[in-house]
Every structure is written in C-alpha cells, then in structure tokens.
Design a protein that fits this description.
Helices cover 90% and strands 0% of the residues. The model has no long low-confidence stretch (mean pLDDT 88). α1 packs antiparallel against α2. The two termini are 15 Å apart. By secondary structure, the chain is an all-alpha fold.
C-alpha cells in the first residue's frame, strides 16, 4: 500500500468526521432556532450546512483526483 493511498484514506476519514460534526451543529442550532421561534435562522442553518457539505464533497473529490489520479 503506497503512501498516497494511505493519505487518501486519511483525507476521507477527516472529511467524514467533519461531515458528522457539521450535521450535529446544524441539528443543534436548528433545534434552538425552533424553540426560540427564530424562523430566519431556522432556514439559514440548513442552507448554510448544505453549502458547506457541497464544499466538503468537492474537496473530497479534488483529494481523490490528487491522490488516486
């Protein structure tokens, strides 16, 4: 197993953990916004989370292209 393959798997694990943390933050903030009846933030948290998810997915794809070729 080459070093690039190991780095590829490490990058995937880091992105997966970042995605799980992102889901937790979005869920927690959405629950708080719902309880406070702050409807603007209730919409903004999932939209912002989706944007960050797309960026993470794109970075993961770039890492795949860089390490695997």
């Amino acid at each position: 197993m080459s070093i690039t393959t190991i780095l590829y798997f490490v990058v995937n694990v880091v992105f997966f953990l970042a995605f799980l943390i992102l889901l937790e933050v979005i869920w927690g903030n959405t629950k708080i916004a719902w309880q406070e009846k702050n409807y603007k933030n209730l919409v903004l948290y999932p939209v912002g989370g989706t944007v960050i998810f797309v960026v993470l997915a794109k970075l993961s794809g770039l890492a795949h292209d860089f390490f695997v070729g």
